[in-house]
Amino acid sequence: MNKILVTGATGFIGSRLVEKLVSTSDQIFVLVRKTSDLSALADVRSKIQLVYGDITDRASVEAAMPGMDYVYHTAGITYMGDRKNDQLYKINVDGTRNILQAAAAAGVKRVLHVSSITAVGISHNRKPVDETVKWNFDSIRLEYARTKHLAELEVAEAVRKGLDCVIVNPAFVFGAGDLNFNAGRLIKDVYNHLLPFYPMGGICVIDIEIVAETLITAMAKGRTGERYLIGGDNVSYKQLVDTISKVTGAPRILLPLPFWMGKILKSALDRFKNRNKVSKLFNLSMFRVASEFLYFDSSKAIRELGMRQEPHEKSIRSAYDWYRKRNML
User: Fold this and answer.
1) How many CA atoms lie within 13 A of 288 on its CB side?
2) Averaged over 266-271, what is the pLDDT?
3) Which pLDDT band, with edges at 50, 70 and 90, does 120 fall under?
4) Of 14, 38, 163, 237, which has the fewest CB atoms closer than 10 Å, so is most exposed?
């Protein structure tokens, strides 16, 4: 029986991962703050052990690590903007370094680091890129992407010093259980007619179930120091919102919005009294990213980890049905 520590277990990916891990014979520990909302872990609360700490608090991480065999590091902050730069660095970079160094000191057998597609790059010519592409997200100047890139450099350094680590880079994750409306915000806003236009870029979409099961496989079979893109369909935002409209029955969104026009519109909307009638997704940093093509080739994960694929419509429908059942839309 192995002892497994999961960080970020109250998040979308982390909670679904924990739900799968508790079905094994291993002991599952989750690192949480005393103020953490444990709603996402309600169904497995009796099957896990809580360890109180914070990845930004080095002492608490060091206290949590002894005796652990494996660590899934899914914790991080996702924020598209420039108002939380210090927090982004502290959590995504310093927090990752704390986990890695504490794991090495405690003799942990392997750490799986959950990164992001923003730490990989942009497919400027719409051709899907793979794990070998040179990071080029700095052209957008998005602090979130920069910190995820720097976190991967911390992993590379830990590997050079002898720690066994594997990196996984999930794409845009849809599916049941997205309590905090991460990717699910797009479904909610299309359903509620809050998105009158679509950005002119594209994105790689993957289902949460595939992400969680592939994380477990990557821990078991991934090659040390390697990164694995976990993605599925590459779709334009036009295709994505059309799929959401089809699944939810909402009217189709017909208006494309180039980034240059979006900047003008955003300036006007900022003076609009009732901004609740427009999606919260419409901030310039997020819209800038959505105007690019984040298309990825996940052949490596399919080949080496046996990652399965399924149409993105299935993921959208799964998320939508989950929200409707809980009256969350």
Assistant:
1) 16
2) 54
3) very high
4) 38
Structure tokens at 118: 């923003």
Instruction: Check: pTM over 0.85? Answer yes or no.
Output: yes
Of 207, 216, 221, 225, the residue nearest 303 (C-alpha): 221
- Domain edges within the chain: 3-177+204-231
The CA distance from 14 to 178, in Å, is 11
Model pLDDT for residues 236-251, shown as the tens digit of each residue: 999 999 999 999 999 9
Which DSSP category does 89 fall into? Answer: I
Alpha-carbon span 94 to 80, nearest angstrom:
19
pLDDT digits (tens, 9 = 90+) for 180-218: 888 999 999 999 998 888 888 999 999 999 999 999 999
Task: Supply the mean pLDDT for the chain.
Answer: 91
Residue with the larger pLDDT of the pair 141 and 278: 141
CA dist., res. 305 & res. 308, Å (int): 9
Band (273; pLDDT cuts 50, 70, 90): very low
Query: How many CB atoms sit inside 10 A of residue 267's CB?
Result: 10
Cα separation, 48 vs 167, whole angstroms? 24
In the numeric block, which tokens belong to residue 132?
């070998």
What is the dotted CATH code of the domain comprising 3-177+204-231?
A: 3.40.50.720
User: From residue 324, how far is each of 176, 310, 321 by CA, in Å?
Assistant: 11, 22, 5
What single-letter amino acid sits at 254? L
Rounded CA gap, 196 and 278, in Å? 8
Annotate 104-135 with three-state secondary structure.
HHHCCCEEEEECCHHHCCCCCCCCCECCCCCC
Q: Which residue has the tokens 């979130």?
A: 144
